[in-house]
Amino acid sequence: MTNPRWRKSSKSDTGGSCVELAHTLDAVRDSKNADGPTLRAPLPALLTAVRTGRLAR
User: Fold this and answer.
1) Which phi and psi (to 5°) does residue 38 adopt?
2) 27 - beta bridge partners?
3) Sequence-ordered list of residues with C-beta below 8 angstroms from that of 15, at least 6 positions apart, any chain
4) How many CB atoms lie within 10 A of CB 51?
5) Which of 8, 29, 31, 46 could form a disulfide with 18 if both were Cys (CB 3.0 to 4.6 A apart)?
6) What's the confidence (pLDDT) of residue 52?
7) Which pLDDT does position 43 carry in this prediction?
8) Sequence spans of domains, the chain
9) SS3 for 40?
10) How many angstroms separate the CA atoms of 26 and 46, rounded?
11) 27 contact partners, CB below 8 Å, separation of at least 6
12) Is this model's pTM higher than 0.70 or not?
């Protein structure tokens, strides 16, 4: 991924664990650690996995 634009979660100003979403809708990252790792995944599949509880903690 080359220089994606990132959109911060609207909840990022409330503290806690917040994320940013790449404009390409295929990557997320920790909004407090912009230079850290990113999670690459197709957004629809990731959201489905989260909503249905298929991701292990």
Assistant:
1) -120, 150
2) 40
3) none
4) 9
5) 31
6) 92
7) 85
8) 6-51
9) strand
10) 9
11) 1, 4, 21, 38, 39, 40, 41
12) no
- Residue type (1 letter), 36: G
In whole angstroms, give the CA distance from residue 30 to residue 36: 7
Name beta bridge partners: 21: 7, 28
Closest Cα to residue 19, out of 41, 4, 3, 34? 34
Report which of 37, 20, 18, 16 is spatially closest to residue 28, judged by C-alpha positions: 20
pLDDT of 6: 93
The whole-angstrom separation of Cα 56 and Cα 33 is 22
Cα 2 to chain centroid, rounded: 16
CA Rg value for the chain? 12
Residues forming a β-bridge with 19: 30
Q: Summarize pLDDT for 15-47 with one digit per residue, the tens.
A: 667 889 999 989 999 888 889 999 898 888 888
